[in-house]
Amino acid sequence: MNYVLAFVIGGLICVVGQILIDKTGLTPAKILVAFVVLGVALQGVGLYQPLVDLAGAGATVPLTGFGYTLAKGTAEAVNEQGLLGVLTGPFTAGSAGIATALLSGLVVSFITGSKDK
């Protein structure tokens, strides 16, 4: 059942993004930023953690989950380090995902090679 909930909730988040792309004049970049900010805002008011508890990866993998990770990391770092945690928390929390994305892109670029237009 956990897989079904992750699939449905993650899919619904992606459907909202696709509807925004198709029906509004918003650029994909603006929608991506809005999703990250939405994840931060929902975590800030305490609404995103229950969704993560329910859907697991279905809520943490989309871009709203990246915002949730940044907000959660910031809150934990502020509790541990005080005001300095505002600066270090998001980097500490998001570093694994960002490093994975960069390394994956590097590996894929070596495998596929460049193509002339």
Proportion of helical residues:
over 70%
Q: Give the count of structural domains.
A: 1
Global geometry: globular
**Span between termini:** 47 Å
* H-E string: HHHHHH
Poorly predicted residue ranges: none
Quaternary state of this entry equals: single chain
Q: Note the beta-strand portion.
A: under 5%
Helical/strand content category? mainly alpha
Write down the Rg: 17 Å
The tally of beta strands, per DSSP, is: 0
| Main sheet characteristics | none
Overall residue-averaged pLDDT value: 92
Number of helices: 6
Kindly describe this structure.
The protein is mainly alpha-helical and 117 residues long. It has one domain (2-111). The protein contains six helices and no strands. The chain has helices at residues 2-23, 28-44, 48-55, 57-60, 63-81, 85-112. The mean pLDDT is 92.
How would you summarize the topology of this molecule?
Blueprint: H1 2-23, H2 28-44, H3 48-55, H4 57-60, H5 63-81, H6 85-112
Helix pairs in contact: 2-5, 5-6
Short description:
This protein is an all-alpha fold and 117 residues long. The protein has helices at 2-23, 28-44, 48-55, 57-60, 63-81, 85-112.
Feature tags:
117 residues; mainly alpha
